[in-house]
Fold this protein.
Amino acid sequence: MTADQALFRELVEPTADGARERVIHAVDVHKVYRTGNQETHALRGATLEIFRGEYLSIMGPSGSGKSTLFNMIGALSKPSSGKVYIDQVDIAELDPNELAWLRCRKVGYVFQTYDLIQVMTCLENVTLPMAFAGIEPEPAREKGIEILTLLGLGERLLHKPAELSGGQQQRVAIARALANSPEVLLADEPTANLDQRTGQEMIDLFHELKRRLGVTIVAATHDLKMLMRSDRILWIEDGRIVRDARPSDVDFSAAEFH
Amino acid sequence: MTDPTQSAIPAQPKLPLGVAVAIVRQGIRIRLGRSLVTLLGVTLGIAFLMTTLTAQVLRRGVADEEALRETANRRYAVLLSETGPLLGKSLSLAASGTLDDGERRLLARLAAEGVRELRLRPGTTLPEGVAAPKTVRKTLDDWTRGSTAVLVLGDAPMPAAAEVLGGASRQVVALSRAVTTAPADGLTVVGLNRPPSAEERATARREAERERFRTAWIVAVSLLVTVIGIANSMLMSVTERFRDIGTMRCLGALSGFVRTLFLVEAAFMGVTGGVLGAIGGMLFALGTYLLPYGGTLLATAVADGAGALVLMLFGSVVAGVVLSLLAALYPAAAAARMVPADALRSTV
């Protein structure tokens, strides 16, 4: 066993029970932000499990700690206390470089406003994370073309984001998130800026990706259509996970959805 | 993917410098206007440095010529202080032996200042190719008559008082060499070669010292302004790219990569601005020396100082790169310090 492997064994959590494999596991996570003398408790003991191949929706009003939770799951920041395992690695133990490595390969982000780099073409946007992962330009290019073609953007490889519709930009953002074959795809309100039809297409696309690539998808959303078609829904409120249910057990006619 | 080794984190993820260069090239192309302003700042700063350095080399190359001009000017000034303006006046000239360069220049200067004619003492010949006012041959009796002053050039002995005075009651005799004969009544003898006094020399030295200090000061300030200009422009660039940087950090870019982005941009600006500035500054300095000294002399000066000039060209480019990098240190650090979550916090 090499030193790296030995170190790694210390970081890995004990193997999960059961057939389902945990991609993300958060245990009693607290996060406190300090600005001057003021302390803000964004998370107060959130615990959750996300399993491989799952399509999970997270609901929560603004200020509920949803974005902080997303930051944790995405290896963007560390918890003040508690454990967050991404693909069995405890992020609290990692230094900034290792966190960057994790972000690069294990997590794919789709931001609400897409956040494509405007000066780059679609293809360059998609190959950028591959470059960060140390993949040579030629194979990165090939893979970028493959992913974009898969997402129906084969004709738009060399267009700049500004030349595309919102739905197309969203697809480029998804392609970029998938570039390094991440364990989990994090999407923040992926349908919020899309019209009804494009939103529906996006939901179909997520299911397609889940089915064909086995991608784990975690989406923050209030979109009823999206919630109804997810495998599981988590509610976050006041820094805690307050409910965990399958769509079949949820009454979607309740007031909170309208 | 339950095999834990697959998740092992490498100690030091590698840094794609090629990607950084590509991104910087793209950024410069897209934000061409701002890039050009930055570039102009570097170019001007380095051009000024190079102009000053080149001028030093050229000044050394034309030092002999400059000393001659200085001598001629001083002699002319001494003569003028005795005679008043010489425009349209006649002078008498006794010369023998060889004229030194300073004396030749004095004659040329007299011609340039509009002296009407030179009345030559018998036995005086001017060497071929000397620029001088019109010459008139005269006899011993009347060679000084009606002239404003008598010039005694070369190693000619000073003529006898009677011969100089002729019919006149008072005459100025200007000698370019050491006075060997005691002055007679009615003659004002002026030594054109009067060396600068200790006081004048001290003043000149002080002035030169002050000039050197002033130049060094201006160069230092201009370079400082350049650095501040680049730093300012780079900070603007960081703000402009706040979002892109955040996105890249979320995609797994290391803070070192972000720092590299800005340092690469600065290095590029430094090289380009340095080369442009160094060449431009040297040409400007050559231009300012071409006018008063002429091509031949300048070519010699350049040939003599070629080694130093090449060294200075390289030095200026290096200075451009170093100053740019120096200016980019703080903006690059500011960009690298940015926490990736900040970018998300504004969106989620």
Q: What stands out?
A: The CA atoms of residues 20 and 261 of chain B lie 5 Å apart. Chain B is about 65% helix and 10% strand.
